[in-house]
Amino acid sequence: MGFKTFKIANVYLFPIPDVKTVNTMNFSPKLIPYTKEGRELIHNSLRPDIQHEVGFLMKSTIPNRSVEYMDNRISRYSMKMGECEITGIDLSAHEAHCHHYIPLHLGGTDKFHNLRILHEEIHKLIHHTDKEMIDVLISRFGMTKSMIEKVNKYREKCGLKLIEQS
């Protein structure tokens, strides 16, 4: 609108009259995970089949796993609508494995951004070192070049040898 913007110490200062705002459509202040009402709204917005599987995940226990891991595993599963993050296959709760993108022994955490929802066999593929078993799993899932590239990114973070593509 003609107001001058200043740069001081590599920080831009914008005059307040020049700042434009936009109303966020479909925003609801009630839709937050910090209140019982907000969690119910979020849970009710999930597809019924995902709600059912989340129920199984909520009841499951995994020895030696943190509460943060268990909660973030459920959150990641519902965010991905129950799909494997590499193949896109719909997963039931018992098929879904939660992979640490950066492994715990290499400094990874149980935080949401470090977890990935994968098919049980795809999770095995990431960690396998036996070439024959790797080939069997690639064949079983009809892995495309882009899927193998994703698997290789995960293997690289684990410090494992990359899968050679033919």
Question: What does this molecule look like?
Answer:
This protein has 166 residues and is mainly alpha-helical. The chain has a domain at 46-153: Orthogonal Bundle (DNA Binding (I), subunit A). Helix content is 39%, strand content 10%. It has helices at 36-44, 48-59, 67-79, 120-127, 131-140, 145-157; strands spanning 6-8, 11-13, 96-100, 115-119. A hairpin with a 2-residue loop joins strand 1 (6-8) and strand 2. It is extended, with a radius of gyration of 21 Å.
Question: How are the SSEs ordered, and which strands pair?
Answer:
Blueprint: E1 6-8, E2 11-13, H1 36-44, H2 48-59, H3 67-79, E3 96-100, E4 115-119, H4 120-127, H5 131-140, H6 145-157
Antiparallel strand pairs: 1-2, 3-4
Helix pairs in contact: 2-3, 4-6
Number of helices: 6
- Tell me which CATH architecture of one domain applies here: Orthogonal Bundle
Question: Proportion of β residues?
Answer: 5-15%
Summing up helix and strand content along with how strands pair, one would put the structural category as mainly alpha
Largest sheet: 2 strands, antiparallel
Q: What is CATH's topology name of one domain?
A: DNA Binding (I), subunit A
Which spans of ≥5 residues are poorly predicted at pLDDT below 50?
Answer: none
Order of helices and strands: EEHHHEEHHH
Any idea what the shape is? extended
